[in-house]
Design brief:
heterodimer, A: about 375 residues, alpha+beta, Cytochrome-c3 Hydrogenase, chain B, 16 helices, about 50% helix, B: alpha/beta, Beta Polymerase, domain 2, five-stranded mixed beta sheet, 3 helices, elongated
Chain lengths: ~375, ~170
């Protein structure tokens, strides 16, 4: 009788899912990010992302600062690819002001933005290895990133937050030492990339871990506002550098890599191929560097005319956009920053539901999110 | 999985305006267009935003499938919602604007049309106090919830922390 009663009792209980708290201080979250997952055994039922730990109110600060005073803060959005953020902000303000940027400045901008993209993708390479349990890629990635950062240090004077690109051009011309460093880097780096491919990309354990995990359909990605390598991984050959060329990208030859299956491994391969293409762009830009001024003449205090616009570029993680409302004052009236990480993390519940909890980390890692850019 | 190619296309803003105007007239939505710095802007009533977005998204010819950006602007007398849409097929962009009452801002959610609008709308709700009708989950997103007022409104003042410099005491 006793055992029978207990059976009835357990049947009457509502089926309860286990709540797993992930983060906010977990190395796989790439910053301070937390999500609460309801799991049924090993399967994720739903996920509730919790963001805002790094919210600094950058959009409100922008309204209380002049255009040039706000520029250093733009670096702090996606700090792995800071020059791309600066480029987008400067392009937006230049478009409002109708400033023409000298050709040499445009080429220098392309060089530093693409070098920064390589550095950001190398972090992704290291982190992806870490997420699958290998520590070596992290060291390999950071070693080569160090070479790029020391090159950018010669060029811009900073290593992580540069404040290098300004309205009308760049702050200083390319020094001779940069060319010396780049010539060395150009010889070594393709060899290193081949070593990465041999060691990680072709590794059977790595491939089996990532293949057929987290497959996204392109219709869903359009609807969720995904962009960049995440979109390209699902077989959409779309790149803002090609479709809406800015800063003279139409002059350079490069391919846009796409994935065929839409899984985590494809997004990884897309990023690794983008490193090669970025190197191609940098080589072309440096070989055909036009002569001339590196900075156009712009007034010291900017007062763009009344109006508003949305400007976007292809940042390292996807589409970065600035919506600037100007009322002819020296401060922007309203400045909205649309960041790729914000859109990608917002689709996390949709993407992770139905997957195993062990796959959650690699799927989140394949977005390559940066919380500074998500929380703003 | 098939590869979809999107290449550079020349865009004439007059084509965008004439194509959308035609469709909007058929659906009886009042629109007014203007251009600024080679970008198309369109103003519509706040009540018809959802209908208009659905029209632009579902129409095979226009196919504005992608919500680039969603934001709000506080003009003190009134608020304004801005939807930046993009059409992959035609390489068209459009910025849709809708005015809202500053005292009681209300607008329909577009999450049914663009699911990516979910968090953007949540952010606008907590930053501007806009009531978004039909949104599935309007919890605070970025803020802790202990602020008085709405931070991105113009009447919200930043209280800078006053820091006094205290010189170190001299050793005697």
């Amino acid at each position: 009788m006793f055992y029978g009663e207990q059976e009835i009792l357990t049947e009457d209980l509502p089926k309860d899912y286990m709540e797993v708290n992930f983060g906010p201080h977990h190395p796989s979250t790439h910053g301070v990010f937390r999500f609460i997952a309801n799991v049924d055994g090993e399967k994720i039922i739903n996920v509730e992302p919790v963001i805002g730990y790094l919210h600094r109110g950058i959009e409100k600060i922008a309204e209380n600062r002049t255009y040039i005073q706000f520029k250093p803060l733009v670096d702090r959005l996606d700090y792995t690819g800071a020059l791309n953020n600066e480029l987008c902000y400067c392009l937006a303000v230049e478009k409002l002001m109708e400033t023409e940027v000298p050709e040499r400045a445009q080429a220098i901008r392309v060089v530093c933005a693409e070098l920064n993209r390589i550095a950001a993708h190398l972090i992704f390479f290291g982190a992806m290895g870490l997420e699958t349990g290998a520590f070596t890629p992290l060291l390999f990635g950071f070693l080569d990133r160090e070479n790029i950062l020391s090159m950018l240090e010669v060029l811009a004077g900073g290593r992580l937050t540069f404040n290098y690109i300004t309205f009308g051009g760049v702050r200083q011309d390319i020094p001779a030492r940069f060319h010396e460093k780049f010539e060395k880097f150009r010889k070594i780096f393709p060899v290193k990339l081949k070593r990465f491919a041999d060691l990680i990309s072709g590794n059977e354990i790595f491939i089996n871990r990532l293949k057929n995990v987290g497959i996204f359909k392109k219709e869903d990605l359009f609807n969720w506002g995904a962009s960049g390598p995440t979109l390209r991984g699902s077989g959409v050959r779309f790149d803002i550098r090609k479709v809406e060329p800015y800063s003279g990208y139409e002059k350079y030859e490069f391919d846009v890599p796409v994935g065929s299956n839409g899984d985590v491994y494809d997004r990884y391969l897309v990023r690794m191929e983008e490193i090669r293409q970025s190197l191609r762009i940098v080589e072309q830009a440096l070989d055909s560097m036009p002569s001339g001024e590196h900075l156009a003449k712009v007034p010291r205090v900017l007062k763009p005319p009344e109006g508003e616009l949305y400007m976007r570029n292809e940042a390292t993680k996807g589409e970065l956009g600035f919506y600037i409302v100007s009322r002819g004052e020296k401060n922007p009236y309203r400045l909205k920053i649309r960041t790729p990480s914000f859109s990608h993390i917002s689709m996390l519940n949709f993407v992770l539901s139905g997957n195993y909890i062990a796959d959650a980390i690699v799927i989140l890692g394949s977005f390559d999110t940066v919380m500074g850019s998500c929380d703003r | 999985m098939e590869v979809t190619e999107y290449k550079y296309k020349e865009v004439d803003n007059k084509d965008i305006i004439s194509a959308i105007e035609k469709k909007a007239e058929e659906a009886r939505i009042k629109t007014s267009f203007w251009e600024f710095r080679n970008q198309v802007f369109c103003e519509i009533d706040a009540d018809s935003v959802k209908k208009f977005c659905r029209l632009l998204n579902s129409d095979a010819e226009l196919s504005f499938e992608y919500l680039k950006c969603l934001t709000a602007v506080d003009y003190i007398d009134y608020l304004e919602m801005v939807y930046c849409l993009y059409s992959f097929k035609n390489n068209w962009s459009i910025n849709i604007k809708a005015k809202l009452n500053a005292m009681n801002p209300r607008i329909d959610s577009v999450t049914d049309v663009y699911r990516g609008a979910d968090w953007h709308e949540r952010e606008m709700a907590e930053m501007f106090g806009i009531k978004i009708k039909g949104h599935p989950n309007l919890k605070p997103l970025l803020l802790a919830g202990d602020e008085a007022g709405f931070p991105l409104r113009k009447n919200f003042e930043i209280k800078w922390e006053e820091r006094q410099y205290i010189p170190p005491e001299k050793f005697e």
